[in-house]
Automatic annotation (TrEMBL):
<comment type="similarity">
    <text>Belongs to the HTP reductase family.</text>
</comment>
<dbReference type="InterPro" id="IPR002734">
    <property type="entry name" value="RibDG_C"/>
</dbReference>
<keyword id="KW-0686">Riboflavin biosynthesis</keyword>
<comment type="pathway">
    <text>Cofactor biosynthesis; riboflavin biosynthesis.</text>
</comment>
<dbReference type="GO" id="GO:0009231">
    <property type="term" value="P:riboflavin biosynthetic process"/>
</dbReference>
<comment type="subunit">
    <text>Homodimer.</text>
</comment>
<dbReference type="InterPro" id="IPR024072">
    <property type="entry name" value="DHFR-like_dom_sf"/>
</dbReference>
<protein>
    <recommendedName>
        <fullName>2,5-diamino-6-ribosylamino-4(3H)-pyrimidinone 5'-phosphate reductase</fullName>
        <ecNumber>1.1.1.302</ecNumber>
    </recommendedName>
</protein>
<dbReference type="Pfam" id="PF01872">
    <property type="entry name" value="RibD_C"/>
</dbReference>
<feature type="domain" description="Bacterial bifunctional deaminase-reductase C-terminal">
    <location>
        <begin position="30"/>
        <end position="236"/>
    </location>
</feature>
<comment type="function">
    <text>Catalyzes an early step in riboflavin biosynthesis, the NADPH-dependent reduction of the ribose side chain of 2,5-diamino-6-ribosylamino-4(3H)-pyrimidinone 5'-phosphate, yielding 2,5-diamino-6-ribitylamino-4(3H)-pyrimidinone 5'-phosphate.</text>
</comment>
<keyword id="KW-0521">NADP</keyword>
<dbReference type="GO" id="GO:0008703">
    <property type="term" value="F:5-amino-6-(5-phosphoribosylamino)uracil reductase activity"/>
</dbReference>
<keyword id="KW-0560">Oxidoreductase</keyword>
<dbReference type="InterPro" id="IPR011549">
    <property type="entry name" value="RibD_C"/>
</dbReference>
<dbReference type="InterPro" id="IPR050765">
    <property type="entry name" value="Riboflavin_Biosynth_HTPR"/>
</dbReference>
<dbReference type="GO" id="GO:0050661">
    <property type="term" value="F:NADP binding"/>
</dbReference>
């Protein structure tokens, strides 16, 4: 499906929150944007296992414009298994060149590239092959997939986000990453002002109800550098996570 044109005021609105393509990031980690679409009641889907459209076509186009500006796009395995997303970039003339590298956080090794929408796009020359983040050498290695082995923290049984992003930059030359979700990933990273450079949230004018998948961090989070854009049905907030 093709995209509607990008609203003319969006590039200016987003400019201060995007990785700077001309300036190589000097940090040991890539530039990281946390971005997702939520309902008025802070839900990102109608419920477990339900792929839900929240964004209006004009903010969907904005998401593809964001994809255009990043080297990598990271999602958790929950999202990969439920949504079977394409994660390519349809904005601009050359989908293959413009698409970010999909990065799937799949430490339980449940997701398969084979048979996925991502593989279909890759086979058609419309998307890049994924990097799959695993905790140890995978038993099954799929063709065209690269693996980022990132040991789990023994206490938390989670990967160390800092080490993962350092590895993505050092081993895969990923200079910028947009993180699209899902809820488990977003709820962790909303607390990481040491890692997240920009926060871009689309808010759709709908309520998805209490059985919806909620985004809400464990503790309160303060924002700074806040700016809003208003579209036909959605608003978009750009901000930075505060250090307080
Ligand atoms: N509206 C929107 O913008 C978006 C909505 N979604 C929705 O979100 C839902 C999926 O969200 P969730 O179920 O929360 O799944 P998720 O996509 O956050 O993936 C969770 C899985 O990722 C792995 N993971 C996450 N953090 C980890 C860590 N620190 N260390 C090791 N492994 C880790 C684990 O395997 C975990 O089970 C779907 O319904 C999807 O449609 C997803 C992305 C964007
Ligand atoms: N921006 C945005 N708006 C919504 O309404 C959404 N449901 C999502 N979901 C994210 O986009 C992925 C789908 O990508 P493709 O269109 O298949 O390339 C999905 O997996 C979520 O990460 N995003």
């Amino acid at each position: 499906m093709s995209l509607v044109p990008l609203c003319s005021d969006l590039p200016q609105f987003l400019q201060g929150y995007l990785p700077n393509a001309t300036k190589k990031e000097t940090s040991i980690r890539p530039f990281i944007t946390l971005t997702y679409a939520q309902s008025l009641d802070a839900r990102i889907s109608k419920g477990p296992g339900i792929r839900t459209t929240i964004s209006h076509p004009e903010t969907k186009t904005m998401t593809h414009y964001l994809r255009y500006h990043h080297d990598g796009i990271l999602i958790g395995s929950g999202t990969a298994l439920i949504d079977d997303p394409g994660l390519n970039c349809k904005w601009g003339r050359d989908s293959l060149a413009n698409s970010p590298r999909p990065i799937i956080l799949d430490t339980k090794q449940k997701w398969r590239f084979g048979g996925s929408k991502m593989q279909e796009l890759y086979n058609k020359g419309l998307g890049k092959p994924p990097i799959v983040v695993v905790a140890n050498d995978p038993a099954i290695k799929e063709h065209h997939v690269e693996y980022a082995i990132c040991p789990m923290d023994k206490a938390t049984k989670q990967i160390d986000w800092e080490k993962l992003f350092e590895k993505l930059k050092k081993d895969f030359n990923i200079q910028s990453v947009m993180i699209e979700g899902g809820a488990k990933v977003v709820n962790q990273l909303l607390l990481r002002n040491d890692i997240i450079n920009s926060l871009i949230i689309t808010i759709g004018s709908t309520f998805l109800g209490r059985s919806g998948t909620e985004v809400s961090p464990l503790q309160s989070v303060n924002l700074k550098g806040i700016t809003w854009w208003k579209g036909t049905t959605d608003v978009v907030m750009c901000a930075k996570l505060d250090n307080e």
